[in-house]
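Here is the promised in-class demo. Please do not try to memorize the tokens; focus on the logic of going from shape to residues.
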């Protein structure tokens, strides 16, 4: 593992995910033909960097403490921006946004707490990655708002809620287990 190294290719991919939210946000708020479809393209490029950053970190042995922080943080920032905007536009319900933000904030601060108490930076869990993948698909359906997607959107919304809840429970279990195993 690379200690203290920030400017690696995989970390730059994670950082680019945050930067890609600027044009995605711009196209979400700018009324023009196909503005939501263009925003989706930027979001999908950002999502692809999420898969690629981990791949390249392992391939080039660039796994770093910074990468363990910036990767999930980039996910949380990107998701947070999109869900807040979609709530403002009335595309997703406020309770759904609050659920997502609550979960992400708790997981983020629990990670900071674990780091301060044990010195360990916990990596993302696969259940969290699965939940974020379904959340992304749900948000894509909410952004596009095609009438033929309405029923699928409702189904995806509830699947996403289930996956978010399951991953939250896994994160909570790992949090308490890590604290218990690393008592100082």
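The designed amino acids, position by position:
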């Amino acid at each position: 593992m690379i200690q203290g190294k920030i400017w690696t290719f995989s970390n730059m991919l994670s950082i680019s995910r945050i930067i890609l939210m600027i044009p995605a946000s711009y196209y979400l708020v700018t009324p023009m033909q196909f503005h939501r479809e263009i925003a989706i393209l930027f979001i999908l490029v950002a999502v692809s960097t999420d898969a690629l950053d981990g791949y390249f970190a392992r391939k080039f042995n660039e796994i770093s403490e910074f990468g363990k922080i910036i990767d999930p943080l980039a996910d949380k920032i990107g998701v947070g921006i999109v869900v807040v905007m979609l709530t403002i536009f009335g595309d997703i319900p406020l309770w759904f946004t609050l659920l997502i933000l609550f979960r992400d904030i708790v997981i983020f601060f629990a990670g900071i707490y674990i780091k301060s108490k044990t010195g360990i930076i916990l990596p993302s869990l696969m259940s969290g990655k699965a939940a974020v993948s379904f959340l992304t698909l749900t948000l894509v359906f909410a952004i596009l708002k095609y009438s033929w997607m309405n029923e699928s959107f409702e189904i995806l919304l509830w699947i996403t809620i289930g996956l978010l809840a399951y991953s939250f429970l896994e994160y909570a279990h790992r949090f308490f287990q890590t604290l218990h195993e690393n008592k100082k």
